[in-house]
Amino acid sequence: MEKPTLPSDDYDTPWKDALMRYFPEFMAFYFPRAHAEIDWQQPHIFLEQELAQVVQDAQLGKRLVDCLVQIATRDGGEQWVYIHVEVQGQPDADFPERLFTYNYRLYDRSTNATGTSSASSICSGSLTG
Length: 129
Prior knowledge:
129 residues, alpha/beta, 4-stranded mixed beta sheet, 5 helices, 6 strands, 40% helix, Transposase_31, Transposase (putative) YhgA-like domain-containing protein
């Protein structure tokens, strides 16, 4: 007889919910210089479909906490901000390659016909316990 499988704990959804709800505060606390460059009078837009496509293209597994956010800059421009949160119980040797792949895919998707990119990755790191 097979052992019943227990449902896995969902630690990612609360992190994602907090990032989406408190995005301006997150930016102010962790990245005050970047926060100062964002025009908070304009809406910020979470680009879930675009991020899902990047993750799918990368074929590196699901990333439930990551956020891709379109923001307006104070100089009138537009940028994509990629936020990657990964809480781990142990080091992950594939982390650098995975993050590089995501950044490259975002850069590739955001480069317009003139060759300029609107993507910025400002938050990347891994906390292990």
